[in-house]
Amino acid sequence: MEPTTAQLRHPDxxxxxxxxxxxxxxxxxxxxxxxxxxxxxxxxxxxxxxLWMGMAHNIPSYLLASxxxxxxxxxVQAFLTITLxxxxxxxxxxxxxxAGTKYGIPFPVFARAFYGxxxxxxxxxxxxxxxxxxxxIQTWVGGQAIFVILGELxxxxxxxxxxxxxxxxxxxxxxxxxWAFQMLIIWRGIDxxxxxxxxxxxxxxxxxxxxxxxxxxxxxxxxxxxSQPSQLGWGAGFWSVFAPSLMGMxxxxxxxxLNMPDFTRFGMSQRKQAWGxxxxxxxxxxxxxxxxIMITSGGIVIYGEAIxxxxxxxxxxxxxxxxxxxxxxxxxxTVSANLAANVVSPSYDFSxxxxxxxxxRVGGLITGVIGIAIQPWNLISDxxxxxxxxxxxYGGILAAVAGVLVAGYWVQTRTRLALxxxxxxxxxxxxxxxxxxxxxLVATAVGALLAVGGAYSAPGAGPFPENGLIPAIKALxxxxxxxxxxxxxxxYLALMLPNMRQAHVPIPEEETSERTGESRLGPATxxx
Length: 528
Description:
Layout: E1 7-9, E2 15-17, H1 45-56, H2 59-70, H3 75-103, H4 107-115, H5 120-154, H6 156-159, E3 163-164, E4 167-168, H7 169-187, H8 190-200, H9 205-219, H10 222-226, H11 236-252, H12 254-259, H13 261-264, H14 270-303, H15 310-314, H16 320-342, H17 344-353, H18 360-373, H19 376-379, H20 383-412, H21 438-452, H22 480-496, H23 500-503, E5 509-512, E6 519-522
């Protein structure tokens, strides 16, 4: 029997290829990028809830709230900013997640429908390089935790070791050991990541709760912590900081708003993946925010200064047992978040660029190497750089990619994709011009330019000029994520308008019956 590219549509709306072997001859195909068969889409609501619990409960998430406290907000202002940011970013995240569950495809393959089979590499690599930066940041703070843990156990000989490149050589050793441990897990594949997430998810809160308990005892309870006043007030001082801070909070998960199909492709249904994310992201991030706020505010009460890094705060504890137990919990949390949020996606992204040469595992190793080369210790050296430079800048760029995907999937194609054509060259509907859709590229460039072209920093507080890279659009940088998303969305639809009719060409599908196992040929329909 000859291989067929026919796609089957199940009663719940999920779609799969009748015969995946029909794609094996494509140079844009490998096993990791292939549509997941419906019988292997087994992730439940709990799997997605656990995924978000593991990804949200980590030190960089903690640094969001502690950073806002450090720049002058009180607990109400910081909590409001973070919670609102997570509710906003959940919208494009769920919109892009739909394609993963419906078609069983990862983000780089999804992007081919709008950027072109080759052009999708641009979108994938943009997201992949940002993930490499995050991998480096998470690995650095994990290495810091190992450094402090061993310092408590070994003594001053460890923490007072001779400096190499500005840090004790033992710090670099902890960093590299933490890096190697994560690489070992990712080498075992995506199922190993899922299993690790499942068993660590209920445990990752332990370290933060120990930190909180100690701070509450030392600070004298909740009263002194929640009575800390805002240094910004509720007037112009706060509102001038609120918008760029909100964009930074949104941008924190802007990467996942693109690549959630990497995970939702394994979902049992749209309802299960959506509920898992709705229950997982806002709740866990709000919990993380309030814990971080109380710990950081408590640190102000105890030490008279805002210590925004929990590892440095824990290092001041008088009890070695508390330090070790707390930081082991934080280290587990960081591994859990790093693998899911910052290794899985770029592994697919690099594999998408060279499907026949780079596997999921090799892509993970590439991520690890770039994560070191990006020098993450500089990105979290200051809350102003972390929030207003790193988060806001990359958030605006990735928002432009999200704008193209949302416009293309929900408005242009109305959620209908031809699976086989996502791997086809020349004759496929997603080949466009030489494998590139120039309209998507232009829309992304315009959205990104509007979003970050005016990037600026306060004097001495960041890498950008005070008046902005392009002074005329400096004001837009305070709203970088919204500007990037909206700009690319509008420009893409405007450029694709002459081709809308072609996007609505029916896609033949065979409908299946779960009761009888029979199938019949019918036109494509929108069904979940």
